[in-house]
Give the backbone structure.
Amino acid sequence: MSDSVIVITGYLVLLALGIMLWLLSKFERIRLHKVGVLMDRILHHRTTRLAIMLAWWWVGWHFLVNQVAR
Amino acid sequence: MLPFLKRWGITNPWVWVFLVTTSLQVFRGSPIDTLIFGSSTLIIWLDAAGFLKKSLQERPKVSNALIVIVMLMLGLSLSFFPRHTYLHGAIMFAILPVVLFLVWHKDRGPKEKADPVMARTKNVWKVLSLLLCVWEFAANIQGQLEHSLTTHPTMSVLIDPFLDETIGQTVFVVLWLFLGLGLLRIWGRK
């Protein structure tokens, strides 16, 4: 198995875990709060709000304005 | 010692997240990303250290009609015009101050202590996010060391080709805009 396949598999496993957690919490099949409730809580402090929105903005900048080296 | 570090914002995890990401951009040799993350680190540290706390306003209210109009305009212009142009750069520069203004408001009172379920929820998502960051950073660093983008591809390298087609660009723009709208928590607020 090549290194690139291992790296891509890692991303897919983490993505699948994220989707599974999101769905399980959304339909209350697991004792975790829904993502919306979690976001309401963690966006309480302005420092967190600033950090998350700056990171979100950068993702848009990165793909839409910057040339991604590939 | 800890109260001193806390007062100066040194214990805030976001300061460290952005500082480490800035260091990675230096290592990558990307001056624009270094500037973006460096400036972001400074803003976050200034806020965490309490330098930006003065004259805070209540949370701004935005009508749903205005949100729909802005989302449509942004969605259409960012989806159907080619990427990597001055138009996209100008739109992104215009979005940033608006977004910062919308989250600049003061916190709504002291934060309540997390119940056990909330503490578990936070920990589970923290671990998953941390694993993703470590995996991405490791791929990036390994790729840089081997001077190859394909042996250890980053998420950018994997996702970017899909955005070459209009449909891929549109899907990305829609998902990105709705994620931002969700994070701003402004929809339906009275």
Remarks:
- The CA atoms of residues 29 and 66 of chain A lie 41 Å apart.
- Residues 3-26 of chain A form the longest helix (24 residues).
- Chain A touches chain B through 49 residues (CB under 8 Å).
